Amino acid sequence: MKYKKLGGYKNIHFIGIGGVSMSGLAEILHSGGYAVTGSDIKESLFTNRLKASGVTVAIGHDAGNIAADTDLVVYTAAVKRDNPELAEALARNGLRVMDRAQLLGTLMEDYTFPVCVAGTHGKTTTTAMLAEIFLAAGRNPTISVGGYLPSINGNFRCGGSEYFIVEACEYYDSFLNFNPHTGIILNIEPDHLDYFRDLRHIRESFAAFIKNIRPTGSLVVYGGVPELERLTEGSQCKVITFGAGTSGGTGTSGGAGECLWRASGITFGDGASGGDGASGGDGIDRGPEGAVSFDVWRGHEKLLRQTLKLPGGHNALNALAAWAAAFELGVSPETIAGALAGFEGTRRRFERKGEFGGVTVIDDYAHHPTEIKATLKAAKNISHNNLWCVFQPHTFSRTKKLFNELSRAFGLVDKLVVTDIYPARERDTGEVHSSRLVEALRANGVDAVYCDTLAAAEEYIYKRCINRDMLITMGAGDVNIIGERLIRRELST
After folding, report:
1. Active-site residue, from 37, 76, 124, 241
2. Are the C-beta atoms of residues 78 and 86 closer than 8 Å to each other?
3. Could you tell me if 380 and 412 are in contact, meaning their C-beta atoms sit under 8 angstroms apart?
4. Active site residue 426
């Protein structure tokens, strides 16, 4: 597909092409006939995939990586002005330079129905759910999701229709480059505090995102977002709320008690109650152990009962948001329900990795206190002896600013191992350390230990976890390799 809004650009270079979103955009353009090159600091699954598809990828950044005939350079937010390639691009007369979000927003303008999924938590899962729904409906969508989705064998899909399903991140106000037909806001909480000043700043950003939704479109938003009416003030699109409850509501805006879309009777695969509805014993097929089921209400009409393969009450709300958006865009209830019933999730979102010594290994991307609590609550609905968690804090700024919340987020674990902070894009200023977090966790009654390396954490767990325990490797960095190494140990014995 050739994008009208890209004008006459033909040769496009990506700085940081190995990122989840960047690699997807590179493949979309490569598949559309553009000449694509790129660079990254290290090889990865994504760079190898790009190379296999015919894209030239350089490992390491160098001004020489930008060919003389390059007419557009795209870079990620993590790339700074002193990057030799970005510096070279900015110095060349007539060479257009834009960041990843600007490119994504430009591509989006060529679609009649771009759907953008935003929120502090749940974006990847909900975007993937919508992708499965629109694929099942035969809508042939283009897809950009922030994780590996097995059904499309990656994180992107080049479609051939007017639908574009996009995960929309608020970091650095990236999603303000988008002009969606349908916007989804799952929740709004403090995060990315290395950029946002505070929650008020974050809310201002989400309010601006809402104003960018096309007047002919819709906002699907969690009804429990505080001061929702103030947040949506001045928007011209239709506002549709969703939430959890015991019966159908009638409102199309307002608080959780007035939600148009509601999930009630939430239960789990073992028949335990979700806290707001009926428990088991009604003969309903609840799916795998821990999997969530719920009644889908639109207003006063109960549409059907939805069963997922995923655990956790939070996934009932993610699915309900996908329900509301897809229904609004004309997908039938039967198609939505069938697609969601078969959805098995994306990688690194409560992903079952395998076992070692009878210990079940789960990997999860949770790195924010709210996400951590939701993941641990989901684990409690699956049978096990002791619940172990190895947590890798993500970025110094997040750990510092959410320190107290993190110290209270692990109350459901039996044993917690905390590794050093994953720095991502940041430098250690010495203001916060994982050993201090462990001290705070212990003061809050958590049986926590600190391990300075992933290898030390692996050894500690290997010697102490026993048959029928559950281990969750948790964090947005590279903590997942601990579980993978433990499983390989089992296979090699």
Report:
1. 124
2. no
3. yes
4. no
Active site residue 400: no
- State residue 272's pLDDT score: 40
For residue 157 the two structure tokens come to 């899909």
Catalytic residue list contains 123? yes
Residue 394 vs residues 261, 424, 432, 475: alpha-carbon distances, Å = 34, 7, 12, 7
The residue annotated as part of the active site, out of 27, 70, 120, 123, is 123
Q: Which domains does the chain have, with CATH numbers?
A: 4-100 (3.40.50.720), 111-342 (3.40.1190.10), 351-492 (3.90.190.20)
pLDDT digits (tens, 9 = 90+) for 455-482: 999 999 999 999 999 999 999 999 999 9
- Average predicted confidence (pLDDT) for the chain: 91
CA distances from 314 to 169, 170, 433 (A): 19, 20, 30
Which residue, 224, 199, 219, 197, is CA-closest to 209?
Answer: 219
Per-residue pLDDT of 22-44, as tens digits, reads: 998 998 899 889 999 999 998 98
Predicted TM-score (pTM) of this structure: 0.85
Among candidate residues 373, 354, 370, the one with its CA nearest the CA of residue 486: 354
Which tokens go with 346? 């994306």
